[in-house]
Amino acid sequence: MTADVTGRLREIERAIVARRPEHSIDPSLDRIRALTELLGDPQRAYPVIHLTGTNGKTSTARMTETLLRARGLRTGLFTSPHLSAITERICLDGVPLSAERFVGAYEEIEPYLDLVDASQPAALSFFEVLVGMAFSVFADAPVDVAVIEVGMGGTWDNTNVADGVVAVVTPIAIDHARYLGNTVEAIAADKAGIIKPGAVAVLAQQPAGAAEALLRRAAEVGATVAREGLEFGVTSRELALGGQLLSVQGLHGHYQDLFLPLFGAYQAGNAACALAAAEAFTGPAGGDPDDAQALDEDLVRDAFRQMSSPGRLEVVRRSPTVIVDSAHNPAGMAASLDALTEAFSFTGLIGILAVSEDKDVPAILDQLEPVVTELVVTANSSSRSMAPAKLLELASPVFGPDRVRAADRLDDAIEIAVGLADEGVTDSEGGLGSTGVLITGSVITAGDARVLLAAGPGSPGGGAR
């Protein structure tokens, strides 16, 4: 990458970031529709698999894309937020856009951004610009299929100008209540907006209220429904070195001895949803059995072995073991901690927590307390990060003042936690490496930690990017 390209990429990123941030929600599709119309509606140039949910969206999107790519299809993948670099959000054939291609994509749509900004009551947001870029890049490639993750919700999400032939809904819990509602029923009703007429709706296991809202939407638009635990699901799961070994009942076949290099029952469920989505893309679930076709089992095995989800219980350093995780709400934290305690035999765990101030922090702390030996509270690079002093005030009654300390910066928190873990290794009866470090609280926290710890594509537990 030349210095000119690097400088131009930074300039473009500054211009995009200067727009209304993605957490500032204005529920309207008018601006993104105006942009995509000027671009020739690129999102209609290829079939779309659309994903929403509260937890597991990015992992499931990445797994789905891996399966489709293994079938020889040219793929586009749009996910958010990014861990380390803005270019990660738009991938072609599983690879993030190069700096040169990202710069080119922005410059191609830049004149249209100015036109939309001038014609609308409010300018395009950070997220709307990236959605427009992704749709345009995928049409130009061209891709055979695009896997598109929503930013937030569903009905009013900017990605919802695309009509998914398959709509995947990962587990729903309460999050972003200010925008989506404070019940799972209300949140599910909003997320159900990505289920379009004639689509296949692949539904992860859901709370009863969420399931009712999703099934109601599917019935209203005439979508075919595939439900985890009924039409598809994990039939067996056992721990394996570096991950887990699964058998999965798909929509059109039963797949055995699938090694998934990721931890936890929730990732097994995500993988089952991804497999169902890939099968649904080849033919309608519940359709004529003569038209149904299972995927090649060897192909599925190879794809599962390649699946990765950076920043999700990712081991980024050894001695002591340091794990980064993107859990950012109580349900996600519970799932991550269950997976961690199942897969790792730590006798002590030092937690580092940096979390957005708009999250249910007391409930997140309640999930951490039984598992974490000591907690270091800090801040990440986001302006929304809760101040360490405030986080310390909330954590002290939960953990007791002797088990919590604060650091103003994440790098200082990591230094403290690693020192505590080293002491734990020395003092513990559990032997070498018995005390680990978990860095968690948000995608931004995980991304910041990966940069600080120089986690690369081949980092242990990270898999290939």
Give short descriptive properties of this protein.
17 strands, globular, disordered C terminus, UDP-N-acetylmuramoyl-L-alanine:D-glutamate ligase, single chain, alpha/beta, Protein-Tyrosine Phosphatase, Chain A, 8-stranded mixed sheet, 2 domains, 465 residues, 6-stranded mixed sheet
Report on the structure:
There is one protein chain. By secondary structure, the protein is of the alpha/beta class. It has two domains: 3-306, UDP-N-acetylmuramoyl-L-alanine:D-glutamate ligase (3-Layer(aba) Sandwich); 314-452, Mur ligase, C-terminal domain (Protein-Tyrosine Phosphatase, Chain A, Alpha-Beta Complex). Helix content is 41%, strand content 17%. The chain has helices at 3-17, 30-38, 57-70, 99-119, 126-140, 177-180, 184-191, 208-221, 265-282, 297-306, 330-343, 361-368, 388-399, 410-427, 443-452, and strands at 48-52, 75-78, 90-92, 95-96, 145-149, 166-169, 200-203, 224-227, 233-240, 243-249, 254-260, 314-317, 322-324, 348-353, 374-377, 404-406, 435-440. The protein has an eight-stranded mixed beta sheet with strand order 4-3-2-5-1-6-7-8, sandwiched between helices. The chain has a six-stranded mixed beta sheet with strand order 12-13-17-14-15-16. Strands 9-10-11 form a three-stranded antiparallel beta sheet. Strand 10 and strand 11 form a beta hairpin. Helix 7 (184-191) packs parallel to helix 8. The protein is globular, with a radius of gyration of 22 Å. It starts with a helix and ends in a 13-residue tail after the last helix.
